[in-house]
Specification:
Helix content is 48%, strand content 9%. By secondary structure, the chain is of the alpha+beta class. α1 (2-28) runs antiparallel to α8.
């Protein structure tokens, strides 16, 4: 195949790996710039609190003030925004541009605040809305409080899976350059790719199940307050595309480790007629080999043999008892 063929064989999985890495990086950019509408739409979870209704609900006064967005800054230092977007590192919040129902769509969200970036981040509404634990217990109920505790633990694993996945994918790109020179390099890259693919899949599965469950729990527990939640779409599309590209690259790396050799056919001694010219077949011992006739000249290609008298008896040739033998024994 040669170096050119080897390069073509490595090019495909390398491109797939780079695309997967780019998608993973894009996923992490959600919530990093409140002025960028595209990045603001990269979120796992969304809580819509713009239509809170508390009539007829028995809740503490301080909670009622917060939910009605009338608490004084000195009392709680808390303001409830119209929506909250939960991303990998933090959350962002903001207001709708107007009170029109059509404006309460992602394309018209006006993000005004983003929290600081935190490793192993999880969205804690008790802290975000400035509630104490007793008020949270009364506001959220046991179901949501238990769900938030489980959410905190799973979010920690999800963040670790993401870090391992993106580091392994970056290492895969670096090791992939060595795959150009040998199939051992492809094998090493395949191993790294397997680690990367498993952690990307684990991260995607965890995020999907976690935030789908959290959305259902929020909607059930806070339905009476008219608080709605939903999962993001854009970020999950990017995330599962990263999974697909990662696994596809792993398959191509595996193929390159067993089926794409960098050695040329001439070096290996086949595939080219020119490579066969210097090769001689080994003779088998105790076999006959034809020798050149003394009457045909050098190489046996001389002109026609001289005419003989057809009726001369053999015993009048004047030779010895041993007859001329046109074949000889080969040496062992």
């Amino acid at each position: 195949m040669g170096k050119a063929g080897r390069f073509a064989c490595i090019f495909t999985p390398m491109v797939l790996t780079l695309v997967s890495l780019g998608l993973l990086i894009t996923v992490s950019l959600g919530g990093t710039n409140k002025s960028n509408g595209t990045l603001n739409n990269l979120y796992f979870f969304r809580a819509n609190t713009s239509d809170i209704k508390v009539e007829g609900v028995d809740i503490p006064d301080i909670v009622l003030q917060i939910l009605n967005n009338t608490a004084s800054p000195t009392a709680t230092n808390t303001t409830v925004y119209d929506f909250y977007h939960v991303s990998l590192w933090n959350y962002c919040a903001g207001d709708f541009n107007n009170n029109n129902t059509a404006s309460k769509q992602n394309t018209n969200d006006h993000v005004t605040f983003c929290s600081k970036h935190t490793n192993e981040f999880w969205f804690n509404p008790v802290e975000v809305w400035g509630l104490n634990q007793s008020a949270a217990d009364q506001l959220f109920g046991k179901q949501l409080n238990d769900g938030l505790k489980a959410y905190r633990g799973v979010a920690k694993w999800m963040f670790i899976a993401y870090v391992v996945a993106i580091i392994a994918t970056a290492v895969e790109v670096l090791v992939g350059f060595f795959a150009l020179f040998s199939r051992w390099g492809s094998l090493a890259t395949t191993i790294v790719s397997s680690i990367s693919s498993f952690f990307i899949l684990g991260f995607a599965l965890t995020a999907t199940i976690l935030y789908a469950t959290l959305t259902g729990t929020f909607n059930t527990a806070l339905k009476k307050y008219n608080i709605h939640s939903s999962v993001g779409h854009n970020i999950f599309v990017l995330l599962w595309l990263a999974v697909a590209f990662s696994w596809a690259s792993g398959l191509f790396w595996l193929f390159s480790s067993c089926c794409c050799s960098g050695r040329s056919d001439k070096i290996k001694g086949y595939g080219d007629n020119a490579g066969r010219k210097g090769m001689k077949a080994e003779r088998t011992p105790y076999t006959y080999e034809r020798v050149e006739s003394p009457f045909l000249g050098q190489g046996g290609n001389a002109g026609p043999a001289p005419a003989y008298h057809q009726n001369v008896p053999m015993d009048n040739m004047g030779h010895k008892a041993t007859a001329y033998e046109p074949y000889r024994h080969g040496e062992p």
